[in-house]
Design goal:
Helix content is 54%, strand content 4%. It has 159 residues and is mainly alpha-helical. Helix 1 (3-14) packs antiparallel against helix 4 (88-110) and helix 4 (88-110) packs antiparallel against helix 5.
């Protein structure tokens, strides 16, 4: 398989095309009153999951491209403590930042000048391919949790 085919498949994975529900689809038409509700039997609200996706996505991408990047403290720096978004603006900013992060990841994939498998200069145990696969995998995992939360809350559309 040539490099362009791998890049195309990686881009599709980051976009959530394939076997899982993309995060944007998982969040589409979510009733406002369900954003900060922790569903019975689950651990996080949809807001906490969205923010976690945003924070981790930024960390994974910045770690790959910025040698001076400082990751948040694990685990507290990756999860908001409050299940409710502070306001509608915070919710919208988080959604937009997830979109921007996804677009930044895709831009890295499309940059043919970047060797996806070369060791990162500041972290030779990792490479860009690993970081971008983690972006996609992490979003898919937590996107599924959003779908589960919505099902428990009765706000996931039935097919």
């Amino acid at each position: 398989m040539d490099d362009s085919a791998i890049r195309k498949q990686l881009e599709q994975l980051i976009l959530g095309q394939g076997a899982h529900v993309p995060v944007e689809r998982a969040l589409a038409d979510l009733p406002r009153e369900h954003r900060g509700t922790v569903p019975p039997g689950l651990v996080h609200s949809v807001w906490q999951l969205l923010e976690h996706i945003r924070i981790a996505q930024e960390d994974l991408i910045q770690y790959a491209v910025d040698p001076a990047w400082q990751s948040p403290e694990w685990p507290h720096g990756y999860w908001p403590s409050d299940p409710e978004p502070p306001d509608d603006g915070a919710w919208e900013r988080s959604l937009e930042d997830v979109r921007k992060g996804r677009d930044a990841a895709i831009a890295l994939v499309r940059d043919a000048g970047r060797d996806l498998t070369a060791p990162l200069p500041h972290a030779p145990q990792h490479n860009l391919l690993r970081q971008l696969v983690l972006v996609a995998d992490h979003a898919a995992y937590h996107g599924a949790q959003i779908v589960d939360a919505r099902r428990v809350l009765g706000s996931w559309p039935r097919a």
